[in-house]
Design a protein that fits this description.
The complex is a heterodimer of chains A (about 230) and B (about 180). With about 230 residues, chain A is an alpha+beta fold. Chain A is about 35% helix and about 35% strand. In chain A, the strands form 2 sheets. Chain A has a 7-stranded antiparallel sheet with strand order 5-6-7-8-9-10-11. With about 180 residues, chain B is mainly α. In chain B, helix 2 crosses helix 5. The radius of gyration of chain B is 21 Å and the shape is elongated. The termini of chain B are close together. The chains are: A alpha+beta (about 230), B mainly alpha (about 180). The interface between A and B is medium-sized, with 31 and 31 residues.
């Protein structure tokens, strides 16, 4: 793996040597999990001061972690930060693959939506742990009604209806895509470890208990799209 | 008392419904006359642009709703804390009176985390979950306008309503 330094850090005689000393640790922890990763130390403006951040990219995964001087100096704390970066890279990879698969499926499924036209779009997310990156989205037009399949965030607070489901207490949401339109927003969450996209059951079945959720499939997506398009 | 967040939730749903009706009207060619020239933000747009414009406003509404819910929640906790002091120190001895005044003045400056941690009768998980709401509130208030500040974990208005309501119920402040 490679470790680089931003131009502003290259010019900083105090911080660059401290960051350089940590290159073996970065290779030991991040390089072991992601040998192709490219890490860059950046010096960023944070309020009235400047703060160090470690930005790591590998394939379609990325992570950012601010690192204080105290954390840089303390071995244990720095290792914790590196493991957090690994967790973020893993999360970001799962989320981005899941979104691409969902968008691909949605595009195919919409072929069965009468009179629908599909337009590919792109959204940019900017998240604390994953930084700035782009994801695909869809605009769906059905006659004169519009809806959007839009990735909202890879880092989300678990919805209460997932937490309260008796059968899914260990599930954690790794991201949210919204169906937005006259009948929306309708929230789709990607769950781990169970995997797959889920929606709250009472969106389609109002009598359902609020904690019930179902896996998204072609039929349910088309039904949700109709609800979203028709208000 | 019912949750002090209920009125915020009610206005959110009302506003969301108004926006949905507007989008439906924009998607129905028979209702094009509903848009008059005085509706300057929508009148000149075609059907798709009208719906997209309202959709963007709905996303802003979501953020502002989280902001409002979190603000009402925080104010409720601060008021409850301060109002609890005279009850706690009832005999008004001079020393206790001074102590109460000191605590009262300091209480205004407690961080949200400090405030939440006072409520030991509320389960630790519930206390932790409301902190996520406040973190997103802070970003909604200060971060997203510039797009320079990255977003923390995203939360829906529904969860930003439910989690503080659970907290207030567990703390005995709301029913």
């Amino acid at each position: 793996m490679q470790v680089g330094y931003s131009l502003t850090l290259e010019q900083n005689v105090l911080l660059k040597p401290k960051a350089e000393k940590r290159a073996p640790d970065i290779e030991r922890v991040i390089g072991a999990a992601y040998p192709e990763a490219h890490a860059v130390w950046e010096l960023r403006k944070g309020g009235s001061t400047r703060e160090l951040a470690l930005v790591v990219r590998t394939g379609e995964r990325q992570a950012e972690e601010p690192i204080s001087l105290a954390e840089l100096d303390a071995n244990g704390e720095f290792d914790k930060k590196l493991h957090r970066v690994n967790d973020t890279l893993a999360h970001n990879g799962v989320w981005r693959v899941a979104v691409r698969e969902l968008i691909d499926h949605a595009r195919d499924w919409c072929a069965d939506l009468p009179d629908a036209t599909i337009k590919d779009e792109e959204v940019e997310l900017n998240e604390e742990r994953s930084g700035r990156y782009k994801l695909p989205a869809l605009e769906i037009r059905n006659r004169s009604s519009f809806m959007w399949v839009k990735p909202i965030a890879g880092w989300v607070v678990n919805p209460t209806w997932v937490e309260r489901a008796p059968s899914a207490t260990t599930n954690r949401a790794v991201g949210r895509v919204d169906l937005r339109g006259p009948g929306g927003p309708i929230y789709l969450y990607c769950l781990e470890p169970e995997g797959g996209w889920v929606y709250q059951a009472n969106v389609l079945y109002p009598e359902s208990a609020s904690y019930l959720f179902y896996q998204l499939d072609k039929d349910s997506f088309l039904e949700l799209a109709r609800v979203c398009l028709n208000g | 008392m019912a949750s002090p967040l209920d009125p915020v939730w009610a206005w959110y749903q009302l506003t969301l419904d108004c926006m949905r009706v507007t989008q439906r009207a924009a998607s129905d060619p028979n209702l094009s006359a509903a848009f008059l020239s005085k509706h300057t933000s929508l009148f000149h747009l075609d059907a798709g642009e009208k719906q997209a414009t309202v959709e963007v406003a709905k996303e802003v509404l979501d953020r502002l709703t989280v902001l409002d819910l979190a603000t009402v929640f925080e104010r409720t906790l601060r008021t409850h804390t301060t109002n609890s002091l005279p009850v706690m120190i009832a005999d008004h001895a001079p020393f206790l009176q001074s102590l109460r005044d000191r605590v009262e003045s300091r209480a205004k400056r407690w961080t949200f985390d400090e405030l939440v941690e006072l409520y030991g009768n509320v389960h630790g998980t519930v206390r932790g979950l409301v902190k996520d709401v406040i973190k997103f509130r802070d970003w909604a208030a200060h971060g997203w306008h510039t797009t320079a500040k990255p977003a923390p974990s995203n939360i829906t208005p529904k969860d930003a309503y439910q989690r503080p309501t659970d907290f207030l119920t567990a703390a005995g402040i709301a029913t």
